Amino acid sequence: MTALAVPEGDERLGLRRYLQRLLELDRAAAVRLQANGGVLGVWGGPPLGVWTLRPVALAGPVRVDATVSAQRLLDGLDAGGDVSVPPSVPGLVWAGLLPPRSGWELVAEVPAGVVVDAVRVGVEAFRRRVDPVAPPLRSPEFLESVAADVWERPVVGGAPLRAAHAADLVGLLGPDGEVAAYRSGPWWRIRCAGGSVLGRAGDRPRAGLDLFALTSG
Fold first, then answer.
1. Looking at domain 3-96, which CATH architecture does it have?
2. Across residues 137-149, what is the average pLDDT?
3. Contact 46, 26 (CB under 8 A)
4. Digit-coded pLDDT (tens) for 1-56
């Protein structure tokens, strides 16, 4: 059985937080693990129409490509020591449609604090438009319309604000450093201090944006 040598300290704590956040969004969340050397890529598909990527520097090289339960991986982390790769979970479409690894062009870079502020403003904008509406009139269609208007606005390099919101929700976005935006064909990517959020032009969220409009990490 393949084992992951995840070192104690920031790498282990960061991966643990990432998995916890994914599970808060979806109790049945799965992640795709990819490594061919000393860095593990942990892919997630939170329900905002994006892919999230948390890189983890390992204490030793490994070769793995598997889609597994986020909860079982988290349980392995909590047990301490090297982490055995859980059994594969089949049937997840997003895990088989990962963005390209190369061909990315830098298109913009801004201070992370600017992006953090934009997410907070988005949350407040949603609240200001929804709170005055009486609950009987808050139909799913109304909430979806408001949420889409808020979260589809560009935030950096043409990437939608929901990308930054997703980064915040899964713990990849912090107040320090820079947030860089990249393009590769129809794909966009924002790189934060803790990892990346990626998406494709024209893709829509896989679940209601309104469910997460009032949540911010």
1. Roll (3.10)
2. 86
3. yes
4. 799 999 999 999 999 999 999 999 999 999 999 999 999 999 998 778 899 999 99
Contact 19, 70 (CB under 8 A): yes
Nearest 5°: the CA angle 158, 207, 189 is 25
The contacts of residue 174 (CB under 8 Å, 6+ apart) are 112, 116, 192, 193, 194
Every domain range in the chain assigned CATH 3.10.150.10: 3-96
Q: Each residue of 85-134: pLDDT tens digit?
A: 999 998 888 999 999 999 999 999 999 999 999 999 998 998 899 989 99
Q: Which residues of 189-209 are buried (b: 16+ CB within 10 A; e: fewer)?
A: bbbbebbbbbbeeeeebeeeb
> What is the Cα–Cα distance from 92 to 94, expressed in whole angstroms?
6
